[in-house]
Write a structure and sequence with these properties.
Layout: H1 2-7, H2 10-16, H3 21-41, H4 44-59, H5 64-81, H6 89-98, H7 105-122, H8 130-140, H9 146-165, H10 171-181, H11 187-201, H12 212-222, H13 228-247, H14 253-263, H15 269-286, H16 294-304, H17 310-325, H18 336-346, H19 352-368, H20 370-375, H21 377-386, H22 393-406, H23 410-426, H24 428-446, H25 448-460, H26 465-481, H27 486-493, H28 499-512, H29 516-526, H30 529-538, H31 546-558, H32 565-570, H33 578-590, H34 596-606, H35 617-623, H36 629-637, H37 641-646, H38 655-683, H39 687-702, H40 707-718
Helix pairs in contact: 2-3, 3-5, 4-5, 4-6, 5-6, 5-7, 7-9, 8-9, 11-13, 12-13, 12-14, 14-15, 14-16, 15-17, 16-17, 16-18, 18-19, 19-22, 22-24, 23-24, 23-25, 24-25, 24-26, 25-26, 25-28, 26-29, 27-28, 28-29, 29-30, 29-31, 30-33, 30-38, 30-40, 31-34, 33-34, 38-40
């Protein structure tokens, strides 16, 4: 106590701890004057004692009024020291800073006031304590007491002024402190931080741009703040930094790109828009620095292409095009595999636009870096195949373009077709919904004949007979109707004239055997009318089912389309195209009389003239005199002009072997159909009924000739007599 009295008079000591502010203020003035006298006398030891007393007896006192007096007193000492204050700051400032966390709000207020007065005196020397003061101010900015907040704001402005004019400020030491606080959610603290970032960025000698990656994420985080003012301040700061980036020759794009990619997927629209805008500028400016980040950037862009906000979609599309137009090689660090991986993931997006752009990227990579893409083909092939089932036609068409690009290499072509057939087999709905568009597009991209030959080869050995039949029917319908396959149809029309058409006919015939109606259609297209008639007569009761009649109905309607114009015109010469007439009448006999198809075909046949342009008057009279149809047809076989024109061209097609091939395949279908019926019946009967049925079937089978003999017998009985016995050499033989 004696030391205190010797340093500070008793009256001053008493007033400094008084509850009245005026008395404390007067005591502080006395201390200021005392310090001035001590400075003049050069008594630095006594000055230190005064400071110690103010700290120990007042600033650290358990009584609030004493602490208030101590803070006022320390500020008074600093004012009294004036230019000599710098050497005592180590004693004066720490207890004032400690008072910022005092439980009493009035003490915290006086701490702000005291430090404000101290800072005004020492100015630049104050920088020594900047980090501690900044930390304290950061906390005070969110103080619960409005007066304390107000005092802290005043102090904050003064400290900013001091920092901007000081050449001793260390940005390197400050940045870790700033970064540590950037993710604080308190709105007052956020305003405080943005304010400091803006101020420091305005100082020419402080390179805030170089440290932007350290606090960029925090700024983006503030864009989604509930306070409009904070969002606006953060956006303003970011805009300023982006402008600096555009004008700066040296920027660390890589670290910031990682942050932007994450923010581009934010749930907040404003944050996404800002992030994608930055990415757009980075792609234009970044150059080689961003090569290794292309995959991550693409992963951020593609989802934004389908964003619900139009502004985001526009910027994302622009960025996507910019990125895709950049010419870069794997040797430059461009990771083709990573890009493909991103595109593959985005093919599972719920948004069509994103899936389309992902496919465009795969197509672009395939064109630019084909070798590298083929190395990763196994990683993306299954996903590309699944995309064929996409609900969007545009997506399916793009997938097919990618597949076609891959399949330009022969080793991948069969791989594609095999997988395609496998997908059709596994998913019947895919064949129904997408079969036509897939096959037609592939025919355009990869050559129709090549595609159909490969499909036929695969289906020829198909074990699932029901699927093979369905698939062949679908391919046959596409062949007969698709504009893209007109060249292929033209080739088949010349099957009896040129080698290319004949080879294609034989190639397709092997798998077309799975469907009687497909075979008949193929024969009509190839103008092999005699064989078509024989195929019709080879059919047995089991072949004429609902599916068959549905297919027949479609064929009859197709006969009335422009595709079969040539066939209808040939009906003008019944004497020359006798087998065509017989074929059509055969089809007519298979149709129910009440069906629309029956009426269509019958109407067409009624228009056939009863005379032949190639025959004489005797033929006309016989044809119109009510001679039975079979006799009429057999009579004309003797001088059939069709045979004269095509006999020599049949040498390359063994129609007898083709018919046997057709009957063998159809025999397999019949056996399977009977087994299916038998299995259905068996599973719905009792065990006793099973045994009775099995014994009856076995007994019945013992008295039946083999299936092949039966089918051959039917064919022999129903087909017309061999013309080889009545015609000379060179005539068509079956």
């Amino acid at each position: 106590m004696s030391d205190a009295l010797s340093a500070i008079p008793a009256a001053v000591h008493r007033n400094l701890s008084d509850k009245l502010y005026e008395k404390r203020k007067n005591a502080a003035i006395e201390i200021e004057n005392t310090v001035k006298l001590l400075i003049a006398a050069g008594d630095h030891d006594k000055i230190s004692k005064v400071i110690d007393v103010l700290i120990k007896e007042f600033a650290k006192s358990p009584q609030a009024n004493h602490r208030k007096g101590g803070l006022i007193g320390l500020a008074a000492v600093t004012v009294g020291l004036a230019t000599e204050a710098a050497q005592y700051l180590e004693q004066i400032v720490p207890p004032v800073i400690d008072s910022f966390t005092d439980q009493d709000s009035r003490v915290r207020y006086y701490a702000c006031e005291a430090l404000y007065n101290i800072a005004k005196v020492v100015r630049g020397e104050f920088i020594l304590f900047f980090n501690k003061i900044f930390d304290a101010l950061c906390k005070l900015s969110a103080d619960s007491d409005a007066n304390v907040q107000s005092a802290a704001h005043l102090l904050d402005r003064l400290v900013k002024d001091i920092v901007t004019e000081s050449d001793q400020f260390s940005i390197e030491e400050f940045i870790p402190l700033l970064k540590e606080r950037m993710n604080v959610l308190n709105p007052y603290v956020r305003q405080f931080l943005v304010g400091w970032i803006t101020v420091l960025d305005s100082v020419p000698d402080i390179d805030m741009l170089g440290f932007l990656p350290d606090f960029l994420d925090g700024l983006f985080n503030m864009l989604s703040d509930s306070s409009h003012e904070i969002r606006q301040q953060a956006d303003s700061a970011l805009s300023e930094f982006l402008q600096e980036i555009k004008n700066s020759p040296s920027v660390d794009y890589g670290r910031m790109a990682e942050i932007l990619v994450q923010r581009a997927s934010s749930s907040d629209e404003f944050t996404r828009l800002t992030a994608i805008t930055w990415i757009n500028e980075f792609v234009k400016l970044g150059g080689d620095q961003l090569v290794r980040y292309y995959a991550d950037i693409l992963g951020a862009i593609l989802p934004c292409i389908s964003d619900k906000e139009e502004k985001i979609r526009v910027v994302a599309r622009e960025t996507n095009e910019e990125l895709r137009s950049i010419h870069v090689e794997p040797s430059d660090g461009f990771d083709v595999g990573a890009i493909l991986s991103v595109a593959r993931r985005q093919l599972s997006s719920d948004h069509e636009a994103t899936r389309i752009e992902a496919l465009n990227w795969i197509s672009t990579l395939l064109n630019k870096h084909r070798t590298e893409v083929l190395c990763f083909l196994n990683d993306i092939f299954d996903t590309l195949l699944k995309a064929l089932s996409d609900s969007s036609d545009d997506v399916v068409l793009l997938v097919l373009e990618v597949h076609a690009g891959v399949a330009k290499d022969p080793q991948y072509f069969r791989h594609l077709i095999v997988f395609l057939v496998h997908n059709f087999r596994a998913d019947n709905s895919l064949l129904e919904r997408r079969g036509a568009i897939i096959v037609r597009r592939l025919c355009v991209l990869l050559d129709a004949e090549r595609v159909y030959r490969e499909l036929s080869t695969i289906l020829e050995g198909e074990d699932n007979l029901d699927f093979a039949s369905t698939m062949v029917q679908a391919l046959n319908l596409i062949l007969l109707t698709a504009p893209e396959l007109s060249k292929l149809r033209g080739l088949l029309k010349g099957s009896l004239i040129n080698r290319e058409g004949r080879e294609l006919f034989v190639a397709l015939y092997a798998s077309w055997c799975h469907s009687p109606m497909a075979i008949i259609s193929l024969c009509l297209l190839a103008q092999a009318y005699q064989h078509a008639s024989v195929v019709i007569q080879s059919l047995v009761e089991e072949d004429i089912n609902v599916k068959f009649l549905v297919q027949l109905d479609k064929l009859i309607r197709l006969l009335e389309t422009p595709i079969f114009t040539y066939l209808r015109l040939q009906l003008l010469e019944p004497g020359r195209y006798t087998w065509l007439l017989k074929t059509l009448y055969g089809l007519l006999m298979l149709l129910p009389q009440q069906s629309a198809a029956f009426k269509i075909l019958r109407t067409r046949l009624k228009t056939v003239p009863t005379y032949s342009f190639s025959g004489g008057g005797n033929q006309i009279s016989r044809a119109s005199s009510g001679v039975p149809f079979s006799q009429y047809m057999n009579h004309h076989e003797d001088d059939d002009a069709e045979d004269i024109n095509i006999t020599s061209s049949h040498q390359g097609i063994n129609f007898a072997a083709r018919l046997q091939q057709f009957e063998n395949v159809q025999s397999q279908h019949r056996v399977q159909a009977r087994n299916n019926v038998k299995y259905t019946y068996t599973t719905s009967s009792s065990s006793a009924s099973k045994e009775v049925k099995r014994s009856e079937d076995e007994e019945e089978e013992q008295h039946k000739p083999p299936p092949s003999s039966r089918s051959s017998s039917v064919a022999d009985n129903s087909r017309p007599p061999s013309r080889s016995s009545r015609k000379g050499p060179g005539q068509l033989q079956l």
